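Researcher: Please predict.
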Amino acid sequence: MNRKLIRPNLSEIKEKMKSEAQKKKSHPPYDTHAENYYYLKQMHKKTPMAVVLVDGEVVEGHIEWYDRNCIKLHRQDQPNLLIFKRNIKYLYKLEPKVKETSTSEKSGSEEQEATSKKSSSKKKTTSKKKPATK
């Protein structure tokens, strides 16, 4: 029996290794642009924001401008601020101010409806029977 030694061609192996290296997935990008999207959205809507700084101070206003390192906060009746992002602990949206009506401004029919709703809810809770335990 005559056996033949089969040796692979080295150039074929090198080509396979290069193609495998190219097939590997690349890492995801470092920047997702979510922060930029959030700032743009708040700028266009002129959403009132509160910015809490690292030292605990809270400043309120709406974002007028931003870049990679800082944001410009526009404030009513106060000077605008340019705040470095490294000094921001967190920020959040402020609730829009709603005018509240006092009880003296309510009409008599509204007060009667409110009291009748309260009394009917009390009746419902007292009319329920508890199951008997043995």
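Model: The two ends are 95 Å apart (CA to CA).
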